[in-house]
């Protein structure tokens, strides 16, 4: 099957998150998109570039992006590619239907970094339910469907802002599998998200580890592949297992860990009936943490928003850090605050457009 892709790429300044110009790239790729054995010829491409120097999104840029996203040719899937600190997603405008436009199997193909678009997941903007403005659904790169995604919800918010031509500071409500989420797009382009209250009751995370602190599993021992780790289990609407230490090592040096070997053993451990995301954390100070993550259904990623939230909650419960922390991830920093007054966790970070594209369904 021949695939024709049209891609519109915004050029961004390294110090700004505004759109500075659009390039249009057209190519024909000859491939078989339905089987793992694929033959590719070198693409024949034509590049047309134009530059528009702006410091904030210009009216012409907004018009161009909006018109592209609103194209409705039958048989074509229009999308936007975003990333939140390197955790990347394909965003699809699905507001005209309560069911995703593509299947989980098709999402797996699109997420393939060699034979597809390449992403950690596909996110759909669906009509709101239960009084919310929108509904968010996501398929991971392995086809599984998580309850929600922290970096993804920031990308979702920026995508909706473009779809609705929203400007300035604004917020809306999103229905997710983890409950109602409220993102706020700030004046500087970052997104602050009220992630709600963390779930600490062990059976609700869920984990089979025995609770040892007010119904929660805090600094509990778990044998993973013959190594004893100390873990705290937290749900941010999806399950997390956070570790700062293991037997013989009280403070992890996360860059030394081989997550490709350790991560799957945590994810599929019998103590986690719904599998789990796992955060490996190094404490730099009372307000500064460094984290690597093995995500359920996506392997190691450059960032995990819900994981960063769970990490700060776990650090507070273990007495390792305060309630307001910078969490350094491989893709960049997130600011996380677990407020004492309302018990809600707030996440602030970037979400950036990479390009627009379309593919035949």
From TrEMBL:
One of its GO terms (biological process) is lysine biosynthetic process via diaminopimelate. InterPro entries: DAP_epimerase_AS (IPR018510), DAP_epimerase_DapF (IPR001653). SUPFAM superfamilies: Diaminopimelate epimerase-like. Keywords: Amino-acid biosynthesis, Isomerase, Lysine biosynthesis. One of its GO terms (cellular component) is chloroplast. It is an enzyme of class 5 (isomerase). Pfam families: DAP_epimerase. Its EC number is 5.1.1.7. Belongs to the diaminopimelate epimerase family. This is diaminopimelate epimerase. The lineage of its organism: Eukaryota, Viridiplantae, Streptophyta, Embryophyta, Tracheophyta.
